[in-house]
Structure formats: structure tokens, C-alpha cells
Specification:
With 141 residues, the protein is mainly α. It has seven helices and two strands, in the order H-H-H-H-H-H-E-E-H. The chain has two domains: 73 residues; 33 residues, no CATH class. A hairpin with a 2-residue loop joins strand 1 and strand 2. The longest helix is centred in the C-terminal third of the chain and has 16 residues. The relative contact order is 0.15. The mean pLDDT is 87.
Length: 141
């Protein structure tokens, strides 16, 4: 569940509407987040750093050196995570996650699904924020 405070913090970020490195291939970042979770660690700070790297700092998140810097700066062992990210099983988990997202109608990123309702794009965070604050039930098709 997304906390209202986290939604408010996300909205405070300065973002490039059209970063020079977008669209990009998010596979390495995704694989790193999966590897962190597989190691029973919390990927939240890393995932946030990846989003900021792309949208705030206009960095290429498909670059392994950028990932290593982000992993290290968020307290993760960059070498261990990058090694695990390259394992075949990690790609399989990403594929399963993608299939689950498609089944939930989360067809893009960022997408937030709460009570079956999909909020697609950072410009929809206001609606998710309202839903959480008001306690209303999700709208589903």
C-alpha cells in the first residue's frame, strides 16, 4: 500500500518532462531491484534513486556504472547485486512480474494498483492520494 506521505514526497521532486535518456531500457534496474528483494533486503531507496536518476538527474539507467553508483549510494553491495541481476532466474522473475502487471491492467510505468484500480503515470498520483485520504473503494472495469 502506498502511504499518503510517500505520495506527497514523490510530488516534491523536480523532474525533466522529457529526459534525454528516455525512453530507455529499464531491464537492468528491474533486475537489480529483484536481486535486492531476493537477498531479503528492501529495494525502496534504490528504486527511488533510479527514478530520480532518470527523471531528476537525466542519467542513463541502462548503464551498469550508473546502477553501481546508485546501488552503492543506497547501501547495497553493487557487485553482489549486479552479479545476481545477471542470473537467468532474475529475468524469469521479471517476466512473471510483467505478466502479473498486464493482468492487473498496469500497462505502463509508473503504475499504481490499489484495490483493483490502476493509476497510470505520475500525473495520476493526485487521484491515488485522494483515494487514500478519502478511503473510497477502487473503481474497476
Amino acid at each position: 500500500m502506498v502511504e499518503i506521505q510517500r505520495v506527497a514526497e514523490f510530488r516534491k521532486l523536480t523532474a525533466h518532462a522529457q529526459p534525454s535518456n528516455f525512453p530507455t531500457n529499464p531491464a537492468l534496474a528491474d533486475h537489480c531491484a529483484i536481486a535486492i528483494m531476493q537477498a531479503k533486503a528492501d529495494p525502496a531507496s534504490f528504486v527511488r534513486a533510479v527514478g530520480e536518476a532518470l527523471w531528476t538527474h537525466d542519467l542513463q539507467i541502462a548503464d551498469e556504472a550508473v546502477m553501481a553508483d546508485l546501488l552503492g549510494s543506497t547501501g547495497h553491495d553493487a557487485n553482489a547485486v549486479l552479479k545476481a541481476a545477471k542470473e537467468d532466474g532474475t529475468a524469469d522473475i521479471r517476466m512473471a512480474n510483467s505478466k502479473d502487471a498486464i493482468a492487473a491492467d498496469a500497462i505502463g510505468a509508473p503504475a499504481y494498483v490499489y484495490q483493483g484500480e490502476v493509476f497510470w503515470g505520475q500525473d495520476r498520483l493526485e487521484y491515488l492520494d485522494y483515494m487514500l485520504a478519502s478511503g473510497r473503494s477502487g473503481f474497476t472495469a
